[in-house]
């Protein structure tokens, strides 16, 4: 006798007391726990997950076996169902199988061993289904738990990555500021360009992501000057062709400096192009028009405005009105005309009064 079926709980429904009692006695003889009812409705009232098999008579008043089976399917019962059918009712048996019943048995029950085999196989099927269901449930729970753990780890990794980015930016900014402060002509330039750029960025309603990129690119737009000997900037008079060529290298040098920082890919492009012009006559690549994105166009304006309004040893600095006039004069060739007007409005309305 298989250990699987011992003690299994079986629900029987038959409106014939004699048949019902006989089936119940046979099942108890094979150590099954039995609940016997006399109608289909009683089956629906009694059924629960504790049952391994349901045995249904077909011909019952009020709700027959087929109707009961359909009702069981509606409540998502996956308990195997065996139908009891009278002798000569093979059409019923075929219909039962087509509906999805596990098996059928004829009554009266003449072959007790065959009856037991059918019931035992139904119990084994239910046991298999339960094990599969539990395995699937446990697997889903495990996947859910692993997914949660992975999500937690990803959050920690993102936090660490963000902190590492911030620390890297801070170290580079501190180094750049320290080197800038050694030169009275460049002291504060990066800070002011960053503030001008952010003012213009807010005026044109950049996204939060774009504002972060704009701020970083502004911080490092001149970082290439830190590794180039630009002592020539401090000399009075016009620069030689060689000196000018040296200065024009700083965008490429700056882009190469931050290239290893994979999180600054957009910033690198802006740094490389911050001396390009709308008409394509800038440097180092001579690109223009649509090849210059909005963030690059913003920094170009902010950088040029601060250069014009800051003290230089080779020329006097312009006031705000003069610098805006120069931006407007070069709008369409060097600068984006629409952005120039937005920036001019910000200057006119004293929105940049905290910069200097």
Outline the structure in words:
- The chain is α/β, with parallel strands linked by helices.
- It is built from 13 helices and 5 strands.
- It has a 5-stranded parallel beta sheet, sandwiched between helices.
- It is rod-shaped and about 120 Å long.
Relevant terms:
Rossmann fold; 2 domains; alpha/beta; 356 residues; 5 strands; Hypothetical protein af1432
The average pLDDT score comes to 84
Number of helices: 13
CATH architecture of the largest domain: Orthogonal Bundle
What kind of oligomer do you see? single chain
Q: Give the tally of structural domains.
A: 2
Structural class: alpha/beta
Alpha-carbon distance between the two ends: 95 Å
- Cα Rg: 42 Å
Q: Identify the overall geometry.
A: rod-shaped
Give the helix/strand layout.
Elements: E1 9-13, H1 17-29, E2 33-37, H2 40-46, E3 51-57, H3 65-74, E4 81-86, H4 90-99, E5 103-107, H5 112-180, H6 189-203, H7 208-220, H8 241-247, H9 250-258, H10 265-273, H11 294-309, H12 320-329, H13 337-348
Parallel strand pairs: 1-2, 1-3, 3-4, 4-5
């Amino acid at each position: 006798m298989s250990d699987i079926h011992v003690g299994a709980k079986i629900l029987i429904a038959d409106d014939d007391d004699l048949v019902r009692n006989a089936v119940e006695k046979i099942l108890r003889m094979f150590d099954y726990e039995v609940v016997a009812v006399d109608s289909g409705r009683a089956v629906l009232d009694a059924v629960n997950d504790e049952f391994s098999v349901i045995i249904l008579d077909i011909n019952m008043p009020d709700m027959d076996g087929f109707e009961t089976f359909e009702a069981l399917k509606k409540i998502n019962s996956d308990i195997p169902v065996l139908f009891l059918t009278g002798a000569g009712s093979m059409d019923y048996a075929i219909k039962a199988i087509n509906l999805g019943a596990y098996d059928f048995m004829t009554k009266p029950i003449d072959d007790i061993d065959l009856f037991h085999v059918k019931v035992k196989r139904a119990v084994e099927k239910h046991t298999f289904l339960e094990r599969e269901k539990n395995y699937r449930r446990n697997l889903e729970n495990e996947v859910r738990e692993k997914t949660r753990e992975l999500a937690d780890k990803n959050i920690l990794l993102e936090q660490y990555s963000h902190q590492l980015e911030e620390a890297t930016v801070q170290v580079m900014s501190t180094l750049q500021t320290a080197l800038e402060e050694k030169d009275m002509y460049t002291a504060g330039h990066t800070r002011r360009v960053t503030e001008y750029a952010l003012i213009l960025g807010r005026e044109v309603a950049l996204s939060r992501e774009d504002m972060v990129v704009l701020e970083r690119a502004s911080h490092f737009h001149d970082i290439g000057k830190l590794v180039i000997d630009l002592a020539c900037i401090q000399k009075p008079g016009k620069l030689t062709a060689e000196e000018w060529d040296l200065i024009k290298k700083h965008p490429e040098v700056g882009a190469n400096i931050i290239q290893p920082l994979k999180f600054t890919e957009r910033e690198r492009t802006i740094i490389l192009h911050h001396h390009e012009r709308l008409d394509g006559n800038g440097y180092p690549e001579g690109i223009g028009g649509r090849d210059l994105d909005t963030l690059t166009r913003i920094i170009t304006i902010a950088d040029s405005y601060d250069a014009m309004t800051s003290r230089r040893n080779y020329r006097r600095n312009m006031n705000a009105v003069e610098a805006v006039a120069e931006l407007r004069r070069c709008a369409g060739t060097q600068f984006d005309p629409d952005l120039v007007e937005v920036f001019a409005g910000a200057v006119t309305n004293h929105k940049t009064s905290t910069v200097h």
